[in-house]
Design the sequence.
C-alpha cells in the first residue's frame, strides 16, 4: 500500500536555528514527490517537485532533497514567517495524477 | 503564474440546502482538477478527480450523488454539496494541474452547515 509518513509532527525552533523535516514514503514506483506549505485557513502553496533520487531543489531558506525512500526539507536560519505546516505528497507512477499526502509537520519559529 | 481561485471563501447554510463551490484556474488550462476536504489538524483527503468534459472519478466512500462535480471547461470546475447536513461542514479545497504533474491549490472554502 502506498504510504507517506512525515516526522516530526511538530517542531519548534528559535529564529536562526536550522533543522530538517523528514518525509518517508513507500510507493510502487514514484512519479514525483511534492512539498507544499500550508498556512492556517488557507490552501497549500506549492514549493518543490522532485522526480529522482539525488535531486535537490532550493528556494530562499528551503532546500529539498530526495532519496529512494525519503525526502528532507532543510530549513536554514529560519525566520518567524517560515512558521506553517509543511506537507509532503507523492504521486505514484502510472497514476491519474492523484497525490498521497503525509500528515504534515507544523513548524513554529520563535523570534 | 499557476493561480487557482475558489469562490466563495466562506459559506454558511441551513441543513437541507445545496451549496455550489467554484474553482477556477486563472492563468493556465487545467486538464485535471481535484477536490479535497480537510478536517481540523488533519491532512487533505482526496474526494474526487475530474477531467474536462468527463465524469468525475470519486474516491472510495465519497457519495457521488451528494457531492456533484462538474468540469465544464479547462478553467472551471464546480463542486455542489447537495442537501447539506452539519456533518458536511468542513474546509473544501480544489487543485488544478495542466501540462505538468504539479497540482496548484486554491485558497479553500469553509463550509458551515447549521
Sequence:
Amino acid at each position: 500500500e502506498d504510504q507517506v509518513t512525515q516526522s516530526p509532527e511538530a517542531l519548534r525552533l528559535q529564529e536562526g536555528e536550522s533543522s530538517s523535516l523528514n518525509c518517508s514514503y513507500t510507493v510502487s514506483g514514484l512519479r514525483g514527490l511534492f512539498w507544499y506549505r500550508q498556512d492556517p485557513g488557507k490552501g497549500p502553496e506549492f514549493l518543490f517537485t522532485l522526480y529522482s533520487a539525488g535531486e535537490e531543489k532550493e528556494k530562499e531558506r528551503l532546500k529539498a532533497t530526495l532519496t529512494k525512500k525519503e525526502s528532507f526539507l532543510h530549513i536554514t536560519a529560519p525566520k518567524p514567517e517560515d512558521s506553517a505546516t509543511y506537507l509532503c505528497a507523492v504521486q505514484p507512477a502510472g497514476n491519474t495524477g492523484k497525490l498521497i499526502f503525509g500528515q504534515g509537520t507544523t513548524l513554529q519559529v520563535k523570534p | 503564474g499557476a493561480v487557482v481561485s475558489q469562490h466563495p471563501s466562506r459559506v454558511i447554510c441551513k441543513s437541507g440546502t445545496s451549496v455550489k463551490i467554484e474553482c477556477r484556474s486563472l492563468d493556465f488550462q487545467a486538464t485535471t482538477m481535484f477536490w479535497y476536504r480537510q478536517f481540523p489538524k488533519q491532512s487533505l483527503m482526496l474526494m474526487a478527480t475530474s477531467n474536462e468534459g468527463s465524469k468525475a472519478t470519486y474516491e472510495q466512500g465519497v457519495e457521488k450523488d451528494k457531492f456533484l462535480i462538474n468540469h465544464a471547461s479547462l478553467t472551471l470546475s464546480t463542486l455542489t454539496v447537495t442537501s447539506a447536513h452539519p456533518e458536511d461542514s468542513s474546509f473544501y479545497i480544489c487543485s488544478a494541474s495542466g501540462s505538468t504533474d504539479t497540482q496548484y491549490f486554491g485558497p479553500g472554502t469553509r463550509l458551515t452547515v447549521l
